[in-house]
Write a structure and sequence with these properties.
The complex is a heterodimer of chains A (317) and B (295).
Chain A lengths: L1 H66 L2 H6 L3 E2 L6 E2 L2 H32 L2 H16 L2 H19 L9 H24 L3 H9 L4 H12 L1 H17 L2 H6 L17 H10 L7 H30 L5
Antiparallel strand pairs in A: 1-2
Helix pairs in contact in A: 1-12, 3-6, 3-9, 4-6, 5-6, 6-9, 7-8, 9-12, 11-12
Chain B lengths: L6 H44 L5 H5 L12 H32 L4 H14 L3 H15 L6 H25 L3 H9 L4 H30 L2 H6 L19 H10 L6 H31 L4
Helix pairs in contact in B: 1-11, 3-6, 3-8, 3-10, 4-6, 5-6, 6-8, 7-8, 8-11, 10-11
The chains are: A mainly alpha (317), B mainly alpha (295).
């Protein structure tokens, strides 16, 4: 008797389990159906971000170009947003941006490339494993700290040697920005050089070339597209860099080539105007977006160019 | 007649080639050290400036114009509040996007369009994100310059970094794990949730911590959002105005030409910020070494 009832109880359990399982399956079917949609929506946030940036910059910049003709903006050499008769010419800002970028690349280009050569061609595995993480610390330091360093250390240092240099000048932030970009160029160039197959190096060494000759005549030509791409990305980074130049280069809007003087970059102008009292709706406020869209196009072109050359001219081995 | 080569000339030439190699090796080595040399000076400089102002009252005090009474508790709390926004937003959106791209999206134009878009976003200057945040979060959605607006802006900024590292983490999970799971009758989402994600989690966390440390040190977008300099009350929620550590460094550095001690305050704040970043990176390295499986 007891046995039968036990079996009966079990039977109920089984049917219950089947029912439960069916329900579970329904739920899990539902989950399987909806998860891809949810994930797709999450992925489209990145597209929304791009659209948001484009919409923000374009819609506000158009307001600006209603007040200031686009031609005057891009060819004007005078920038006086706060004067009685405001003039909006972007050339002083582009000039400041290009000069600070050039100074930075004069530091970061050669030193970054030579570091990459050392790390990929000369350093032993042991030395590499110590030096590389140390260099990466440089890349992890927030730019505001570099700004502090440029303003309170590098500028006074330069001024103690060359007293005619201004308290704010483009030279000091340019140099510091260069140091900031060294690890980026070093590690990207090193990647390009280490991906050159060893057989090519060995072939050159076997022909009697020294390591130096192998580096310059075999490895660098083979890795050239990657090295150029790293330089272009470095330039793009320098153009977009904000805090170092904002702090150490001041806000003079003069169109000058004198690197001992204060110059304003596009990024620093955006910080000055956005942080200032310019009310929303004024021409000064809208000028912010016109400058920003110029900056955006500059860096976008650089990034696309870097990707193009590293794809187009990549040597396949 | 066979032209014989001049042995001394050959020797000289060989010597000079070898010497060149040695000289340049030394120059390359010095270049590598140059970056580290500047790093050392920077560190020494910051510590020398800041260490005398770094005491308990400085960490727990409120902001003040008086250098002797100024503290950074408010900025520290502001940074913590921002982090509390950035972590969930970037993890959900970033990992979700990575899963979609790696495991659901079909190879094709659409996938490569999204991926190109992400790598372009990674190259957009941070200040442009500031303008996006100012226009969309601060003005259009009318949040004002509050924690939520700052946190969302910084989330969008670091999202591309996190997505790319999460994609790499997912790609590194070997296919046979997923196949075993399918073989046991698991569905796709069950496999992702119980097999692939746990296996990729250490790498994802490492990437997320690294992108977080980028968000913590970022200043430019915050300046555009109009984050105030001298804010006495502490932030207590997502809709409170706030200031953050890098903003405090920025204002103190700018005003150091007016009050000399502000440079010391900036130095002390930098020490706190760098210590925080160092801590985060150590955690990331610890997770990577401790939990990462090699298949």
């Amino acid at each position: 008797m007891q046995k039968i009832s036990e079996v009966k109880q079990e039977a109920i359990h089984v049917s219950e389990i089947i029912a439960q399982n069916k329900q579970k399956k329904n739920v899990s079917n539902l989950v399987e159906k909806w998860i891809p949609t949810i994930l797709f929506l999450l992925a489209s946030i990145t597209i929304l971000t791009t659209l948001g940036i484009l919409y923000t910059l374009l819609s506000q910049a158009i307001q600006f170009f209603r007040a200031v003709p686009i031609w005057e903006f891009f060819t004007g050499a005078v920038l006086k947003p706060l004067s009685q008769n405001p003039e909006f010419g972007i050339l002083p800002l582009i000039n400041g941006t290009l000069i600070s970028t050039a100074i930075a690349m004069l530091v970061a280009g050669p030193i970054g490339l030579m570091s990459a050569i050392y790390l990929s061609e000369y350093a032993s595995e042991k030395v590499r494993r110590v030096l590389k993480p140390l260099l990466e610390i440089l890349a992890g330091i927030p730019t505001i700290v570099y700004g502090f360093f440029a303003f309170t250390f590098v500028t006074p240092l330069i001024r103690s040697i060359f007293p005619e240099v201004g308290a704010t000048n483009i030279l000091s932030p340019g140099l510091v920005m260069g140091v900031m970009i060294i690890p980026m160029i070093a590690s990207l160039s090193e990647d390009a050089m280490t991906s050159v197959p060893n057989a090519m190096r060995e072939g050159s060494l076997a022909m009697g070339a020294t390591k130096l000759e192998t580096t310059f005549k075999v490895v660098i030509p083979a890795a050239f597209s990657g090295i150029i791409a790293s330089f272009v990305l470095g330039i793009s980074r320098a153009i977009g860099e904000t805090m170092i130049v904002t702090i150490a280069s001041g806000s003079s809007k003069n169109f000058t080539f004198d690197i001992t003087q204060s110059m304003q970059t596009m990024t620093a102008y955006i910080v000055e105007v956005a942080g200032g009292e310019a009310a929303a709706g004024t021409t000064i406020y809208y000028s912010l977006y016109a400058v920003a869209i110029t900056l955006f196009v500059f860096t976008l072109l650089m990034n696309l160019f870097a990707r193009y050359i590293s794809r187009k001219f990549r040597e396949e081995y | 007649m066979i032209k014989q080569f001049d042995e001394t000339q050959l020797k000289n030439r060989m010597n000079s080639r070898v010497r060149n190699n040695r000289i340049w090796k030394f120059i390359f080595f010095l270049s590598t050290l140059f970056g580290l040399f500047v790093l050392a000076i920077l560190m020494i400089r910051v510590v020398m400036d800041g260490i005398s102002f770094l005491h308990m009252d400085f960490l727990t005090g409120r902001l003040s114009t008086d250098p002797d009474r100024a503290g950074i508790m408010g900025a520290l709390l502001g940074t913590v509040w921002v982090v509390l926004v950035v972590i969930p937003v970037t993890l959900i959106v970033g990992v979700g996007t990575a899963i979609y791209l790696e495991l659901y999206a079909k190879r094709g134009k659409f996938k490569s369009f999204i991926e190109t878009n992400i790598s372009n976003l990674a190259g957009v200057p941070s200040i442009v994100y500031g303008l996006l945040g100012l226009t969309v979060f601060v003005r259009m959605m009318d949040f004002g310059n509050v924690v939520l607006a700052g946190g969302l802006t910084l989330s969008l900024l670091v999202l591309p970094i996190l997505i790319v590292s999460a994609q790499e983490a997912l790609r590194a999970v070997p296919g046979h794990l997923a196949e075993a799971s399918y073989g046991m009758g698991a569905t796709k989402w069950q496999t992702i949730r119980r097999v692939i994600l746990p296996a990729a989690l250490p790498s994802i966390l490492t990437g997320s911590i690294l992108s977080l440390s980028r968000a913590i040190g970022e200043t430019a977008p915050l300046t555009v959002l109009g984050i105030p300099a001298l804010l006495i009350p502490f932030p207590e929620g997502l809709f409170d105005t706030f200031t953050a550590l890098p903003m405090q460094i920025y204002y103190w550095t700018l005003d150091s030409s007016l009050v000399a001690e502000y440079a010391n305050l900036a130095g002390a704040t930098i020490i706190v910020l760098l210590a925080l970043l160092f801590l985060l990176n150590s955690v990331a390295i610890f997770i990577r070494n401790k939990f990462q499986h090699r298949y």
